[in-house]
Every structure is written in structure tokens, then in C-alpha cells.
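for the recovery benchmark. C-alpha cells below, seq after
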């Protein structure tokens, strides 16, 4: 009797998210994770400013921090809301995870930087878990609207050769 009630609460058009397993030896610096962006997403415009550490440097400066490089670009206006999920162990040695996202917007490739804080000031994990495994999701906004039916790549920019104790990374386009 509960099955019809539960089924009626499920949005069949909602993006269920995608997860990519990370090598048990660690997430290597420069290793990109590629996620497919659904073609029929509903893109949400939100007002959120992301703080970027002034010591973080990015390799591609085509459209980083709203500075224009020598080539012209016309990214799509608006933003896309994403949920980034990090599955990690309690032995993860950092309180955060710096990520760079690259995605097509309009007729250019855009790079955004996100600082995902997964532990509070006292070192307690913000996520939920059982035993030694935790999962934490954070909602972030891209600077520009992501083209539907394209790909988004994520890589860590943590200034270490490999980030240990992360099992998988998930990405969901929020409607």
C-alpha cells in the first residue's frame, strides 16, 4: 500500500546524479573526472558568491576569476546549481577539498574553482556516515550556465601529488 505513495513522491525527471570511483591509492593531481550534463536540465539562477583563495593558481586563464584573456569568449548568462558529493574515510587528512570545474558555456570553455569544506573548525566531519566512512554534499553555483548535453570535468587543486582517503566523487545537476 505504501509503494504507490512512495512512487508518487519521486520526480522521474530529476537528475539522479553520477558518481566516479577514485583510485584507492589516491586522487592524482591533474586526474580529471568527467561527468555528463543532462540535456533536459532546468538550470537554476541563484545569487551566491564563491570565495577563491588568493594563493590558488590555475593553469588555464581563458575565463578565470572574470578576467578576460586575449581570445574573446561569450559564455551563456546565468548560473547552474550543482551538488558535489564527497565520499571519504575518517582518515582524510584535510578539512576541505579545493576543486576546479571546467565546462562549456555558450561558445567557450569556463573554469570555476570551489572550496568544499567538509569538516568544522573543531575537526568534526560535516557529512553523515557509519563507522569510518563519510559522505558530504555541498551545493555550489557555477559562474555561467552549463550547456546541456555536454561534459563537466572536475580535478582537485590541493597542491599535493595525490589526495588520499577519498572513495568517490558525485555530481548532480539540481533542478
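predicted aa per position
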Amino acid at each position: 500500500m505504501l509503494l504507490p505513495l512512495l512512487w508518487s513522491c519521486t520526480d522521474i525527471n530529476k537528475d539522479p546524479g553520477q558518481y566516479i570511483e577514485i583510485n584507492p591509492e589516491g586522487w592524482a593531481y591533474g586526474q580529471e573526472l568527467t561527468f555528463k550534463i543532462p540535456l533536459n536540465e532546468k538550470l537554476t539562477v541563484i545569487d551566491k558568491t564563491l570565495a577563491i583563495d588568493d594563493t590558488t593558481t590555475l593553469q588555464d586563464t581563458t575565463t578565470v576569476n572574470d578576467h578576460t584573456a586575449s581570445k574573446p569568449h561569450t559564455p551563456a548568462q546565468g548560473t547552474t546549481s550543482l551538488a558535489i558529493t564527497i565520499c571519504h574515510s575518517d582518515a582524510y587528512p584535510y578539512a576541505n577539498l579545493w576543486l576546479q570545474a571546467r565546462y562549456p558555456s555558450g561558445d567557450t570553455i569556463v573554469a570555476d574553482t570551489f572550496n568544499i569544506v567538509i569538516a568544522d573548525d573543531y575537526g568534526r566531519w560535516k557529512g553523515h556516515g557509519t563507522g569510518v566512512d563519510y559522505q558530504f554534499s555541498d551545493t555550489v553555483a557555477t559562474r555561467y550556465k552549463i550547456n546541456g548535453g555536454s561534459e563537466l570535468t572536475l580535478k582537485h587543486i590541493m597542491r599535493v601529488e595525490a589526495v588520499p582517503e577519498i572513495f568517490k566523487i558525485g555530481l548532480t545537476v539540481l533542478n
